[in-house]
Design brief:
seven-stranded parallel β-sheet, about 25% helix, three-stranded antiparallel β-sheet, about 25% strand, Rossmann fold
Length: about 325
């Protein structure tokens, strides 16, 4: 693919379904419970101060569940006249993903998997539909990989619930660069599955071997019919009927591998916090991946559909 093609709008939100939108809830979402996140909260200190970069449609910065979690944000899209400091979410998707990772503990709304983690919001998809150029994604990954916070914080996890059908060499190179900086890159498998776990569907960056590719299951641990299958799927997480934060200060139930991905990104924050306390040192990306895969339970499906199985933070 030539360099000029990197500028075309070919990356999209992986299609997802908005099941319902409500203005008030007070609960730990079913998906957060299904992966046993509460069992890991004490040891993982709720992911305190671990920075997760969310590359998506932006985020509602003043959502009561998220305003205390966002450490910084940047816009790489043409929305809002390309203002780099305006990462407003016009879709709802990015706000939903951010809430699953780290919706804060405030006795109302929902709780994220790692409710004390910090979010770096990197807007790489524009408009209500959430489409973007490969260039925006590449710039967003580079930004997250090189970012430093006010106190020297660095991004430890990049979460991407997006994908395109093109295998773009520049995108692959950028992903490898982030992984070489010891960042765990977590990506959605995609929703182009045909309900045949034996077939192969590829979305990028999800199916690059260097990333953690996340497929979806429902709340009964059944493989989602839409979840793409290929030889690089690493694990699955809840992706149907997922309740989280939404634009306009609301909450919504969404379905898709986009919703499974942030469960794993939030879990990674808990695992990093817990493991680095135990080992008394910084873990490499390989080691974080190994700790993540230790916390899975095998499912009765082909590996190309579910990888190592479902994320379960009660496993150690």
């Amino acid at each position: 693919m030539s360099n000029s093609n990197v500028k075309t709008n070919e990356v999209n939100l992986i299609p997802f379904e908005v099941v319902s939108v409500v203005d008030q809830v007070k609960e730990i979402p079913a998906g957060v419970n299904l992966i046993n996140a509460p069992a890991a909260w004490e040891k993982g200190e709720k992911g305190e101060d671990i920075v997760v970069a969310v590359l998506d449609t932006g985020c509602q910065a003043d959502h009561p569940e998220l305003q205390d979690r966002i450490i910084e944000g940047r816009n790489f899209t043409t929305d809002d006249n390309s203002d780099p400091n305006n990462f407003t979410d016009y879709s709802g998707h990015g706000t939903h993903v951010a809430g699953t990772i780290a919706a804060t503990e405030n006795q109302k709304g929902v709780l994220g998997v790692a409710p004390k983690a910090k979010l770096l919001i990197v807007k790489v998809l524009a408009g209500k539909q959430g489409s973007g150029a490969y260039e925006w994604i590449i710039n967003g990954i580079n930004y997250a990989a090189n970012w430093q916070g006010p106190n020297g914080e660095k991004v430890r996890v990049i979460s991407m619930s997006l994908g395109g059908r093109q295998d773009v060499p520049e995108l692959h190179k950028t992903v490898k660069n982030a992984v070489n900086k010891e960042i765990l890159v977590v990506c959605a498998a995609g929703n182009g599955g045909d309900n045949d776990p034996g077939s192969i569907e590829l979305s990028y960056p999800g199916s690059y071997q260097e990333v953690v590719e996340v497929g979806a299951v429902d709340l009964n641990k059944k493989a989602s019919r839409f979840s793409e299958s290929n030889k690089n799927v690493d694990l699955v997480a809840p992706g149907e009927g997922i309740l989280s934060t939404y634009i306009n200060g609301e909450y919504a139930t969404l379905s898709g591998t986009s919703m499974a991905t942030p469960h794993v990104s939030g879990a990674a924050a808990l695992i990093i916090k817990h493991s680095e306390k135990e080992f008394e040192r910084t873990l490499s990306e390989d080691e974080i991946y190994a700790q993540l895969i230790k916390r899975t339970v095998a499912l009765e499906y082909p590996k190309r559909a579910v990888g190592n199985g479902i994320l379960d933070l009660a496993q150690e």
